[in-house]
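Subject: Sanity check before I submit

Could someone independently write out the C-alpha cells for this chain? I want to compare against mine line by line before I put it in a report. The sequence has 120 residues.
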Amino acid sequence: MEQKQARYTWHKVFDSATEAREQVPLRKLKQLVLDGRSICFAHTTTGFFALDDSCPHLGYSLSKGTTNYLNEVICPWHSYRYSMQDGRECDFRTRKAVLHRVELRDEGVFVGIEHVATTT
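---
Independent answer below. Compare away.
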C-alpha cells in the first residue's frame, strides 16, 4: 500500500510578523519567488496565506489581484475567486489553487513548499 508523506522546504520570507504586516498591508498581495517558484503572499483579517501565483484558470498572476471579505484572492483577469482556506474556486469552474503553509515563528514568517514523497 502506497502512503504519501508530505515534506516541506521552509523559506523565511519576513523577519517578523510586524515586518510582514508592513510589507504586505491588510487585504494586499505580494509576489514572492521561492526556489524559482512564483508565490502569491496574502494578508487578510484572518492572517497570512500563500498560494501559487499562477491562476489555475489561465495562468495570470494572482498577486496582481485583490482579496475580499470572504477570505478569497480574486484574479484580476477574469475575476475568478479562490478560497485561501482550501484553494477552491468559488463557482467550481476550474481546478483548485495550490496553497502553501504559512507559519509565524519566533524567528520570523515562513512559507512551506510541499514535496510529496511516495513510500510503499
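---
OP: Matches mine. For the report I'm noting this point. DSSP finds one helix and nine strands in the chain.
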